[in-house]
Amino acid sequence: MSERNIVIRSNEQVRKEIYKAVGEESGIDVHVHDGIVRLTGVVDTEESLDFIESTIRELPGVDDVENELTVKIVQ
């Protein structure tokens, strides 16, 4: 029987990893609760929005992403 290493990350640890991955000055707010990440704020492009979400989904401790980001409207 093999042993499995289980690592449980706190909400704060996950949040710090997210900001490390996408940058704290990214213009987004990150809320984490029990592995569910809620993103709010404004980004410059649709590509940025997609990149941020896909990057966060790959991080350890993230079970789901509720993406409420919006793309900045350029006039």
How would you write the strand order of the largest sheet? 1-2-3
Kindly estimate the percentage of residues that lie in beta strands according to DSSP. Answer: 25-35%
Helix content: 25-40%
As residue ranges, the low-confidence spans are none
Can you describe what's shown?
- It is a single chain.
- The chain has 2 helices and 3 strands.
- The chain has helices at residues 11-22, 46-57, and strands spanning 28-33, 36-43, 64-71.
- The longest helix is centred in the first third of the chain and has 12 residues, at 11-22.
- By secondary structure, it is α+β, with helices and mostly antiparallel strands.
- A 3-stranded mixed beta sheet has the order 1-2-3.
Topology:
Elements lengths: L10 H12 L5 E6 L2 E8 L2 H12 L6 E8 L4
Parallel strand pairs: 2-3
Antiparallel strand pairs: 1-2
Could you name the key traits of this structure?
single chain, alpha+beta, three-stranded mixed sheet, 32% helix, 29% strand, BON_dom, BON domain-containing protein
Provide a concise account of the structure shown:
Helix content is 32%, strand content 29%. By secondary structure, the protein is α+β, with helices and mostly antiparallel strands. The model has no long low-confidence stretch (mean pLDDT 88).
